[in-house]
Amino acid sequence: MKRFTLIALAAMLIVTMAAGAALADSYNVTANFGIRVTEQGTSERVGAITLQGATAADLFEAGPPEQAIVGELLGGATISRTFAASYDYGGTLIEEWTPTAGDRYGDATLAADYYVVAIAGQDFFSIQINVDSVADETVVLGHDDASALCFNIAGTQYTASDPNRQLVLVSYADNLFNTYSGDIYVATVKARSIAFDLCGKALPYDIITVSGLGQGEDCGIGFGEECIFRFTDNASGALNGPYRFVIGKTTGAKAGVGFEAIYIEKLEAGSWVNINGLGVAATVTNRRNRLGEADLTMDPAETSEITVTSTLTGPGSYRIVAAYEYDTCVPITPGVWTIDIFANLIPCGSSFSAIDWDAMEFFDPAGTPMAAVFPYAAATAGGAWFNGLVFTNPLSTPVTIDVQIVEADGDMYIGQVTVPGNEMVVGTVADVVNPVLAPSHTDAEFGDESYAIYAGSESGAFYGFLFIGNGTMAQGYLPILTSGGHMLP
């Protein structure tokens, strides 16, 4: 008896499910997966999508309940651009707005036939049906900038090197148990072509004073302007059009240093040319601090992440020059200023990125070795030429500088000078450093050959200048500086 009851119940369920399936509608999905997106791109625009009833009887329904269609991103991809837009059937735009994760309805115009919502960071987009359709009417999205579907495929399975993982996938479902068939692909992955480089052979650096380690009376604002990275793409048609750059980071950002402005330059005929015009910065559209708070009026030293827009002018090499500001009253900590870089065509596409990019190095001169090299000074024996030397101490505490002098024939001299706080010493090389012959060396006379000067300090930062003259003409130059230790022979 029990067995009979179970069999009967199973039969009833099968009949019920079959009846339910018969009531479900079917829809065809057509997508443009010929659109090519950049491998590991952080904000890539995928192809337009069209949904249509499989037969004249398969219609979109306003309910109740209202039909809600979800497109689920597969393979680890997420939405990279937040938008909401309402449309009439066929894709005629009625209204667009910016939704939030907690309010996906926003200002939806109920007179529109349907609306589309996507939230950055989520792995799905949604379509809400507001008005019943008639035969052959279509739901279209991604066909215009208002509903541009932008995917973050960085760190996902999608790759240009494996034919089985070159197509970006989306699946479809709704709350009425309808069926969806057709294209599940929305884009084809292409190889990355944009290369990142340092601006020079080494990181640029800046100095924070010893008073910046506390709330001393001498702490305050410092300024600088440096190239922080270069990028190149020689692909035909690439890097052309309005671009958005998000530079910096919020979580984990370096305290006390931030962006004032961003300048974008392009290499033209061997020279770097500002693409916005001489001295014109890229347009700032957002500033965020280390807490993620946004405010366009934020002080530069607090702007740990800056968003700018500018129109790139086609393939080639570009560099990003940052005008930055640091506040030693925070206090700023010594070390590398590490940033994230995200760039994409507006609203999305042709994107590229770099995570934890070493942009600048700050160091505390009271605790970091510093060195300077003057690679050439003239021979002074006989009195035809003289070499003048200046050391300047930017700190409020004394700095002791050790010097090694190496003549062209290999003879070596050593010397030392202490520069009082916020002062300078100036004179001939012999007067400033009092050179004496190094142990195990012999020489007839100091300065009988041209020589190089290697200066280093363990006690703080210093600046220098060497000038060479003979009474009727003179020239001078700044030394080669490093924060990484002594540059000795």
Automatic annotation (TrEMBL):
Signal peptide: 1-24
Keywords: Signal
Signal among keywords: yes
Protein name as catalogued: MBG domain-containing protein
Naturally occurring in which organism (per UniProt): Desulfatitalea alkaliphila
